Known about the structure:
The protein is α+β, with helices and mostly antiparallel strands. The protein folds into 2 domains: 68 residues; 122 residues, Up-down Bundle (Four Helix Bundle (Hemerythrin (Met), subunit A)). Helix content is 65%, strand content 14%. It is built from 6 helices and 5 strands; from the N terminus they run ββαββαβαααα. A 5-stranded mixed sheet has the order 2-1-5-3-4. The two termini are 42 Å apart. The mean pLDDT is 90.
Amino acid sequence: MKLLFQEQIIEVEQNSTMEDIIEKVNVLLGNQFYFSHLVADGQEITEAPEEYLLRHLTDITELEIIAIGAKQFVNDLLLSAEEYVARAIPHLTDLTDAFYHNPSKENWMGLIELFEGVQWLASMITAVDQSIVRPTNWDAVMEPAIELQNELGTLEEALENTDTVLVADILQYEILPVFETFAEEIKIAIDTEGMRHDLN
């Protein structure tokens, strides 16, 4: 089998295992690239590539690795984070109003969705933080992220005590400003070092 990446062609031994192939792929990617998907004999494999390799390894004659550069990977994560935060800010305002009054089941579900979004943000921040490419204002991006984690602990206490007014106060006076600061810093990072895909 031929393993293709960028301009490189590597002949892989016939008796190679899936683990051998994955190891070779990881070596080729290094820390400069992030895996996107595979093209096996002209067929794009975007979901469950390990499973595909396990089933079809002996049949594949040419396996191409499609990857994106670290800078593009970080830029795409920042764009996704910017989009999420822009959608979350109005949602936070609505949640705040609801928790000052009598929150419905939908409002409680909205709070759960907020926690899930914050978990996604945390994983995005970890991925960028571990990348070799980080925006120059990364410390400024990290500050509200750390502050947000701290505020979530306070919010958790309010939830344990079912103090909906305190939940609303924390959302309005602690979490919302952190989201707004986070949005500003991400925008700065994208506008100064990244690129937007939708510019004409």
